[in-house]
Write a structure and sequence with these properties.
single chain; 86 residues; mainly alpha; 3 helices; 92% helix; membrane; transmembrane; transmembrane helix
């Protein structure tokens, strides 16, 4: 290890020994912040079974609506073809 690395390590160790209380408080705050951040990001990405069910119902309703529109268009095309053949 180089002299600057050893010097930094020695200085850092002295600072930590002198200010153990502050270092402990800072580490505690960092850990709390990280745990809250992880919890919030995890809770946003996961959904409850009820939310999953509602999403599925919404998707199914959209599919039903699109199929109904397609059926209506096909019925109109059939009517036009019948009129053209008569």
């Amino acid at each position: 290890m180089s002299n600057s690395g050893k010097n930094f390590q020695r200085t850092f160790n002295q600072y930590v020994r002198r200010n153990q209380g502050w270092v402990f408080i800072i580490l505690t705050l960092v850990i709390l912040f990280l745990s809250v951040f992880i919890f919030r990001s995890f809770s946003k990405t996961t959904s409850t079974p009820l939310e999953n069910y509602q999403d599925q119902m919404t998707k199914m309703q959209e599919q039903i609506n699109s199929q109904a529109e397609k059926i209506q268009l096909l019925e109109e095309q059939i009517k036009k073809l019948q009129e053209n053949t008569n």
